[in-house]
Design brief:
The protein has helices at about 30-45, 55-65, and strands at about 1-5, 10-15, 25, 50, 70-75, 80-85, 90-100. A four-stranded mixed beta sheet has the order 4-7-6-5, with helices on one face. The chain is about 20% helix and about 40% strand. The chain is α+β, with helices and mostly antiparallel strands. The mean pLDDT is about 90.
Length: about 100
């Protein structure tokens, strides 16, 4: 969805495979508190959001072909595999693939 909201726009994204599923809301980063929060998380290497991938290795390869820059390549962290990329807007985004219990 894309709605005017004063000088900004209210944007939401959905998966084309599941248009009635959850929506991701994108908001402007104009308040000084949100800018400081975002900068501190990025500086400390803390992802602002996490999304599950069915096949992390394949998803990382697909995104890298599209030009996405990963700050953390796929890594085994015990109960999951994770990878982190920079969204080019000042945020780190984590992808994970949960491991099946042994």
């Amino acid at each position: 969805m894309d709605f005017p909201a004063g000088e900004y726009r209210w944007l939401t994204l959905v998966s084309p495979e599941e248009p009635d599923a959850a929506q991701l809301v994108l908001e402007p980063n104009v308040h000084s508190a949100t800018q400081a929060y975002q900068a501190a998380l990025h500086a400390d290497g803390i992802p602002i959001s996490t999304f599950e991938a069915d096949d992390l290795i394949a998803e990382v390869a697909r995104l890298e072909k599209l030009g996405v820059k990963f700050t953390t390549q796929p890594a085994d962290v015990g109960t999951a595999m994770i990878a982190v990329f920079d969204d080019s807007c000042g945020n780190l985004i984590q992808l994970y693939e949960a491991k099946s219990p042994a």
